[in-house]
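Q: I have 123 residues here and want to know how they pack in 3D. Can you give me a structure?
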Amino acid sequence: MRIDKYLWCVRLQKTRSKATKFIEAGNLMINGEETKKASREIRVDQTFSIRVQPIWRTWKVLDIPKSRVGAPLVIDLIKEITSEEDLRLLEEVQRQNRENRLKGMLGRPTKKNRRDLDDFWEV
């Protein structure tokens, strides 16, 4: 099965066209070898890695589906073999990004924000 179709079938990408663009951007490795071709074939017992900043998440292919499957059935098709250390690092980075996003002011300042800024600069 083509790797772009496989990523779509096991719900790692929402559409095949997004999967193709993702692969062509160099975000996929098959058996440790980087590929930029969406037409590359994937087989049972191969491993593939997807770049999720700042790590590579790795899965092993357990079976090839005939078509897209429901989320509960995905566990029968792939098994994640990413190290616990990498998953902890990813979780920490995501937590920091979430905190930074919540701390920051989004969009145009409100009237209260503006008054607070004016008071700050007057002192």
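Q: Anything worth noting?
A: The mean pLDDT is 93. The helical segments are 3-9, 16-24, 84-103, 111-122.
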